[in-house]
Please model this.
Amino acid sequence: MVKIKQGDLVSRISYNNDIIFKVCNIKDNSDGERIIILRGINVRLLADSPESDLIPATYDEIKGDSKVYEAMTRRIPNSKNKEEKKSLRFLLREPNSATLPGKVVHIDGDGEYLELCLNEYKEKGIRAYGFEKIESEQPKIIFDILKKIHPDILVVTGHDGFFKKEKEYADINNYRNSKYFIESVKEARKFESSLDDLIIIAGACQSHYEGILDAGANFASSPGRILIHALDPVRVCVAIAMTNIDKVVTAKSISVDVLSGLEGIGGLTSMGKQREVAPKPRYNFEQGDVPNAI
Model:
């Protein structure tokens, strides 16, 4: 058997090698067996596995896994709805006006995913501040970050998972990181209690959807306890950030923008965060560095 090491890309035999993971940590259990801690390379899933259940992923398997999600992404329709297109035509007639998408704070437990997400925000023209912090530490930094940046939208994500051996989906202790997402949302609501003034999107793969919503999130994963793609929280965020403030975003409307659909991310009807501004700003404004932001 090939000895697994940190950083390797692997798949699980018992799951028919359905997901490609990166080895992020290795521990010994009480029997002296090596337990491998895994993070999905395309999905926000955290898992552990005995070393004996893992095999190294081949180059073709890694490329194939990525191509599956790339193909799914290409099948998602353009998120611009009729109102956005109407707004675009208006801007073509009025060159001295512009739209200002909502400002975003994105806190992620995975640095590689965070970079992907920030690139997505940049491509869409959305001002986003990114912070990498493991899930258990996220509740400790939320309030201070919100106080400093005052965003319109907060995204709190990373990795999660439901313990395979458990059967009770209502019990928060059966989830790897859901309790931390819940704590983070509660901390954010101490800063801003209004569901309209601060839109919160929280959770990862198989997260305790009901608990996260009950804590005060507008949108959360995962209603169906399914896997979500690394960029699914961003797609929800973009839909809200680029919807005008006089319009609403619903779980059904955002479901067409995320790979995991309505079973992956659901939530409350919420106000959009984009505003029109005229005249069009002429100069950039920099407010200085934000500590720990990427």
